[in-house]
Amino acid sequence: MNVLLTFPVNLTVDQVITQLRSESDCQLISSQPEVKTYYDSFDWRLYEHGIICEFVAPTLTFKSSKNESVIAEKELKKVPKFSQQFKCETVRLILEPILEMRALSPVCTIAYTVHQFIILNEDKKTLLRLIIEEHEQINHRVIVQSLKGYGNAAESITNTLTQLGLIAANEPTLIDALTQQGRDVNDYSSKLAIQLTPELRADVASKMIYSCLLTTIKSNEQGTIADIDSEFLHDFRVAVRRTRAALSQLKDVLPHDINTRYAKFFSWLGSVTSPTRDLDVYLLNFAYYKSLLPVSMRGHLKPLHDYLCKKQKQAQRELAKNLHSTEYLTTLVEWEKMLSESTQSDSIAINAGLTIKALADKRLWKSFKRVLREGEAITDQSPAEALHDLRKSCKKLRYLMEFFQSLYEKNAIKSLIKSLKGLQEVLGDFQDCQVQEDNLKLFSEEMQTMNTPTDTFLAMGSLIQSLDTHRHEIRSHFALKFAEFKQEETQVTFKLLFNKKSQ
């Protein structure tokens, strides 16, 4: 069992070693400089699952964030970017379900000196090992590694160290290293965490919402341009969509000319990021596409995969160009400046002076009634467009609930969001199948001039047919999912939370 201790600020490594040598046979085995790089996804998925990933060439080590015990380690020349690229099955099994499509990226690097000691007894047998990490910018650390049968020796040395002022290390070295750099674990999350108070003016609160979304856009901007992994663009686009939804749903809060201008800008931003995201999704889903085909046909999809990769790279270059454009950079700076300006108490916008709670009640109730109205009008004969329109209305309602969830009882609002998610999933899957079918047909036409093998077109045709069958299966589930959403309990909760006029 290992014991981790951290040095007090005023205690040196030499002082500790001098004390240990005065009480025991403490011998230095090695002393050498090291550089350690910590890895995680941009949104800290490993740390969220209690794992710390560190690379000290040539060894990549996965440790528990609780006690830094080793979970797995592997010698590597270079750290792969994605979990699927690890040749070691043990490592893949750890990473794949956690990272999914996210890349491993360096989050922090520290330089230090490692001193390794052993403590011997009178018979010159090793009782325990000590590993001291001597840092310049953060507190030194020591790991007491006890050996089987010599637990008393480890306890004795640990007592000596604590008497010198060392204390149990309650947090991993990563935390101290990040703090020294002005960072923290979980310093990025795509989840909304907007704390509003009911009496806030609507214009003040709306700027808080827009500012939170702008932070997400800016946080993901460089990762989107560099195409580090597909989630940067995904989170970027979600923040853009949420901003568009707020601009369309929170009407007459900002001045009309400002609202109109930025609604147009974020609509443009949504459109220029769509092609790359669509192709990202096709590539992310490619293993699923292959699974829909007989084993004998799956290999024939490779030309389609190559074609999608080529199109994605072209779309990514165009996307990066747009995000470097004067229109994008200038407008975003002006948007940020406008959001930072103090609001005027005599704003000409009709709803600016309302409390955010009053506006939230009004908008959420109206949006909920629209979802009910559109959903109840859908029959088995309704066109696909009707489900698509309902999907958009559900998304706007979901965004509003997420914006304003701090204004309502936590469990009640979470329950409503959860009930809406179920309906959204069916509508989203239905729409995705429809779009994928249409685009696969388009890709097939475009590939006609590329000497594509006939077997590839046959495989694509079979894939389209499978997606069409799946789409009809999803369509048959809509009525049940909508009935679950509009059940009396849900309607009563919506009315109690948002429709104050009826109470």
β-strand percent reads: 5-15%
How are the strands ordered across the major sheet?
5-4-3-2-6-7-8-1-9
- CATH topology descriptor of the largest domain: Hypothetical Protein Pfu-838710-001
CATH superfamily of the largest domain: Hypothetical Protein Pfu-838710-001
Number of domains: 3
Span between termini = 62 Å
Largest sheet: 9 strands, antiparallel
Structural class: alpha+beta
Mean pLDDT: 93
Counting DSSP H or I runs of 4 or more residues, the number of helices is 17
Which stretches are low in confidence, meaning pLDDT under 50 for 5 or more residues running? none
CATH class of the largest domain: Mainly Beta
Helix content, binned percent: 55-70%
CATH architecture of the largest domain: Beta Barrel
Radius of gyration: 29 Å
**Morphology:** globular
Order of helices and strands: EHEHEEEHEEEHEHHHHHHHHHHHHH
Number of strands: 9
Element layout with pairings:
Elements: E1 2-6, H1 13-23, E2 25-40, H2 45-48, E3 51-56, E4 59-64, E5 70-75, H3 89-99, E6 105-120, E7 126-135, E8 141-146, H4 151-163, E9 167-168, H5 173-180, H6 202-226, H7 230-249, H8 256-284, H9 286-291, H10 295-298, H11 302-323, H12 326-340, H13 356-376, H14 384-404, H15 410-446, H16 454-485, H17 488-498
Antiparallel strand pairs: 1-8, 1-9, 2-3, 2-6, 3-4, 4-5, 6-7, 7-8
